[in-house]
Amino acid sequence: MINQGADGELSPSTDGNAAIGGRALKARLRRAERMRKVAAFGLVAPLLLFVIVSFALPIAGMLWRSVEDTEVSSVMPRTIAALKGWGGQDLPSEEVYRAAARDLAEARANGTASAAARRLNYDINGFRTLIMTAARKAPSADEADIRAAFVALDARWGERETWAAVKRASGPLTDFYLLAAVDLQHDASGSIVHVPEERAIYLDVLGRTFRISLTVTLLSLFMAFPVAYLMSTQPAKVANLLMILVLLPFWTSLLVRTAAWVVLLQNEGLVNRLLVWMGVIDAPIRLIYNSIGVHVAMTHVLLPFMILPLYSTMKAIKPHYMRAAISLGAPPAVAFVRVYLPQCLPGIAAGCLLVFILAIGYYITPALVGGAGDQMLSYFIAFYTTDSVNWGMASALGAVLLATTMVLYGVYSRLVGDGAIKMG
Amino acid sequence: MVGGDVLVRFSMVQKTYDGEALVVKNLDLDIHRGEFLTLLGPSGSGKTTTLMMLAGFEVPTYGEITLNGKAINSLPPHKRNIGMVFQNYALFPHMTVAQNVAFPLEVRKVPKAEIGAKVAHALDMVQLAEFGKRRPAQLSGGQQQRVALARALVFDPELVLMDEPLGALDKQLREHMQMEIKHLHERLGITVVYVTHDQSEALTMSDRVAVFHGGVIQQIAAPDILYEQPKNAFVANFIGENNNLHGRIETIDGDRCTVVLDGGARVQATRVNVYGADMPTVLSIRPERLYIGDSPTDVTNRLTGTVVESIYLGDHLRVVMEVPGGSSLMIKMQARPNLSQPKPGDRIELSFRAEDCHAHAPLKVAAGDA
Asked: Nearest C-alpha of chain A: how many angstroms from B153?
C-alpha cells in the first residue's frame, strides 16, 4: 500500500533497482558475448562460404532444374501464348498453327529449334524429327489452310496428342521430370497415370538402389562389429596396428581397389581358382559383372565407415559394465545383449546411416563390377548428365534420391531415437 | 561376530599374472558369516586381486576358495550369487535407476510382480524411492553409489563385495556414506568384504581389517587391536599416525626388552617380533602416547629433546621434537585453556610407557634404505 505510487509501481524500490541492474547486466553480457560470437563466426566463415558456393547452391540449382521448363516457351513463345486458351478437346484453332509457323520459321533462322525439339522428344518419342522437319519446311503463316499445310508436312500435326505435348512443355515450371523419375506421366487429358510397362524403369532402379544399399549396410555391420570389438579390447599398440589395416584401403584410390576386385573375382581369378582347387566348385562361377561383384566390392569399400564409428563408441564403453552385469548374475551372453549392445547402439546407428547413405550414391563401383541389371540410380543420373545432356531428368532423379533419403533418415532417426546417432 | 561360522575360506591361494611375481602369496583367510571385513593396503598389495578372485573375475593360480564349504574356483562369476559394488558405480547408462536395480532380478527370472516390489523396497532402503525413473547421469555421485548399493543388495546375496566404492566421492560425502553402509550391514546381517586403501575408512566400518602388503596379510584383527597392538612395523606405520625410533636390542625379558637407541639412550619397550639381543629394531609409539610435562605415574621411559615446531589445532596441540640420534618425534597433546605452549628451541623432557612402545623388526625395505 505504502509503495503504491501514482505510476502504479507496486514493488518495493529495491526490486526495481534489481530489475534495472539485471537489464544493465544482460546488456553488458551481450556486449561481452558479441566479440566471441564474431570471432566464432570468423572461424567458420571460410568453410561456410565454401559449403554455400560448392554445395548448397549446386543442390538448389539441381532442385530448380528438375522443375524448370523454359526451352519450348523460349523458342516458341507465340505458339505457347496462342495455346493458352485451348481446352484440349479438339484440334487447336488456326491461330495456333499460324503462331507455330512464325515461331518455327524464326527458330530455324536463329538455329534454336533443336533445343525445343529435344525437350519435346523427351515427352513423345519422334518429336525431334517432327519439329526439325517443320522448322525446315515451315509453312508460311499466311497460308490459307494452315492446318492442312501442317498436316501435309506430317500427319501428327493433326493429332491432339501432339499439341497437348507442346502445351505441357509450355513452362515455366513442370512436374514432367519428377513424374518421369518415378515412372509417372500426364496423359492427354492432364491426369497423372503410370507410364507404359516398357518405359517404366526408375522405380525398379530406385528399389534396386535401396536393396543393394541395405544389403551392403547389413554385410558391413556384421563384418565390422567383431573387428571393432576386437580393436576396442586390445592394448593401444595392437589397436593402432589394426586401425592402420582398417584405414589402409583409404590410402588407395577407389578405382584401383575396384579394379583389384575385377582381377580377384573374374572367371580365371584368384577366388575362382582357389574354389576349384579346393574342390568346392567344379567350374568357375560368375562372381563379377553381377550382383555378387557389386555387393563384395561395395562392402569392402564401405567397411571402414562402419568400423570407425563402431570403434569409437565401443572404446568409450568401459569394461566394468560387463563385469557389473556378470557379477549381478547375468551370463556373459545376456550381459552382452542387455548391457553391451544397447550402449553400442549410437555407433551402430551412425555406421549404418553413413554406409547406407554413401552406398545409395555409389556409381563407379557398380559401373565397373556390376552387370547391366545391377546399375544404381547414380548411374542413370550420370547417364543423363554426361551422355544425353538431359539436365532436367538428371536433376529429377537426383531430387527423388535426395527426397527418399531424407524421408528414410527421418524414419530411421525416429526409430533409433533422437540424439542416439553418434558419429565420433 | 568373529568366530561365527565360516562363509568363505581361502586356502593357500596364490595368484600371479606373469608367472614370475606372485601378486598374492599363500593366502589363508576365513571370512565369517555376517562380518564386515575390510581388505586394507596400499595399491599393488594384492587386496583387489583377492577380491576379484572371490568375485570370480580372476582365477587363482594355486589353492582353493570355498563358499559355504563348496569350492568355487571353477564356478563362473554369474553363478556365485555375490553382490558387487564397483568404484565407478558401473550403473548401466542406458537404463533408468529402477531398471538398473531390477536387472539382477530379471536375469534371475524373478516374476514381474515380485520385481516391482523388491525394486521399490531396495530403493527405499537407500532413500531413493523417488528416483526410479531417472537416468544414472541425472544423479549425483553419492546417489549413484546408493543405486549401485541397492542393485547389489536387491537379490539378497549372502555376500557383498565392495571395491573402493567411495573412492570417487568427496570427503564429507564419503564419511556420510561410510556410516550408511555400516548401518545397512548391521540392519541386513549380510557379509561384506570391503576393499580400500583408506585406513580411517577401514577403522570406521569394519569388524575386522586385513592389512595387505606385498601380497601377504600382515595382520588381520579388529580395528582397536590393529591400532593398539600392531604385529609389525608395517602395520604400525600404515594404521594411524606413528613415530619410529631406531635402535638395537640389548636384553630380552619375556615380553619386555631393553633397547639402546641410536642416540645412546636406553628405553624399555614391549617386545613384538624381535627375537635376540643385538638385533636392530624399530620402536613404534603413537603420538598421543608421548607426554610432555604432566605424565601418568607409570611411565618408564624419559627422553630429552629440542622442540622444532609447535602447532595449535584447537582440540589438540602438535609438537615436533628432535631427540638424540637425529629422530624426530611428533607428540599430540590435549589442548586446554592456559596451556603453556612449548616454543621452538626449548629443551624439554618427554616420557612414555613401555607398553605403548612396541619393538618391531625393521622392515626389509626400510633397512635397505638406511
From this structure: 10
- Enclosing domain of residue B140: 6-233
Please name which of B242, B267, B259, B235 lies closest in space to residue B328, comparing C-alpha atoms: B242
Facing B57 at nearest CB: one of A321, A323, A338: A323
Of A65, A83, A100, which marks where a domain is finished? A65
* Interval A230-242 mean pLDDT: 91
The helix-helix angle for A391-416 and A57-65 (nearest 10°) equals: 120
CA–CA distances in Å: residue A390 to residues A71, A354, A384, B27:
12, 30, 5, 83
Whether the CB-CB separation of B160 and B153 falls below 8 Å is answered with yes
| Least Cα separation, residue B87 to chain A (angstroms) | 10
Number of domains in chain A: 3
Residues of B within 8 A of A327 (CB-CB) are 55-57, 77-78, 82-84, 161
- pLDDT band of residue A220 (cuts 50, 70, 90) is very high
Q: What is the mean pLDDT of residues B226-247?
A: 91
Which chain B residues are Cβ-neighbours of A325 within 8 angstroms? 92, 103, 107
What is the reported pLDDT for B182? 93
Contact between A330 and B94 using a beta-carbon 8 Å cutoff: no
Neighboring chain B residues of A347 at a CB cutoff of 8 Å: none
Query: For residue A58, what are the domain limits?
Result: 11-65
* Mean pLDDT to the nearest integer, B92-103: 94
My answer on whether B246 and B229 are in the same domain is no
A247 and A159, same domain (yes or no): no
- CB spacing of B84 vs A328 below 8 angstroms: yes
Closest CA to B292 of B329, B240, B260: B329
Whether A285 and A351 map to the same domain: the answer is yes
> In terms of Cα–Cα distance, which of A325, A338, A328, A322 is closest to B154?
A328
User: Across the interface, which of B84, B88, B93 has its CB nearest the CB of A327?
Assistant: B84
Angle, vertex CA B94, rays to CA B91 and CA B99, nearest 5:
70
Q: What is the pTM of this model?
A: 0.75
Last residue of a domain, one of B233, B268, B293: B233
Q: Which of A313, A318, A327, A337 to mutate to test the interface with B (most CBs of B within 10 A)?
A: A327
Please say if the pLDDT value at position B214 is more than 60: yes
User: What is the per-residue pLDDT for B194?
Assistant: 95
How many Å apart are CA A165 and CA A174, to the nearest integer?
A: 12
Give a yes or no: residue A183 inside a domain. Answer: no
Asked whether residue B139 is domain-assigned, the answer is yes
Same domain? For A214 and A165 the reply is: no
Q: Inter-chain contact B92–A321, Cβ cutoff 8 Å?
A: yes
H or E stretch at A26: helix A13-51
Q: What percent of chain B has pLDDT over 70?
A: 97
Q: Do B77 and A335 lie within an 8 Å CB cutoff?
A: no
Chain A residue with minimum CA distance to B104: A328
Same structural domain, A130 and A52: no
Closest Cα in chain B to A321: B90
Nearest-CA distance from A355 to chain B in Å? 25
Are both B227 and B130 inside the same structural domain? yes
What confidence category does residue B226 fall into, taking pLDDT thresholds of 50, 70 and 90?
Answer: very high
Identify the CATH number of the domain in which residue B147 sits: 3.40.50.300
Number of domains chain B is built from: 2
Residues A59 and A92 placed together within one structural domain of the fold: no
Based on the domain organization, do A253 and A376 belong to the same domain? yes
Give me the mean pLDDT over the A163-172 stretch: 84
A326: nearest CB among B77, B83, B94 = B77
Mean pLDDT of B239-249: 91
Check CB contact under 8 Å for A320 and B88.
Answer: yes
Mark whether A166 and A275 lie in a shared domain. Answer: no
In terms of domains, do A242 and A388 share one? yes
Collapsing DSSP states into helix, strand and coil, what is residue B109? coil
- Split at pLDDT 50, 70, 90, the class of A365 is confident
Cell of residue B155, nine digits: 537379490
Quote the pLDDT of residue A20: 58
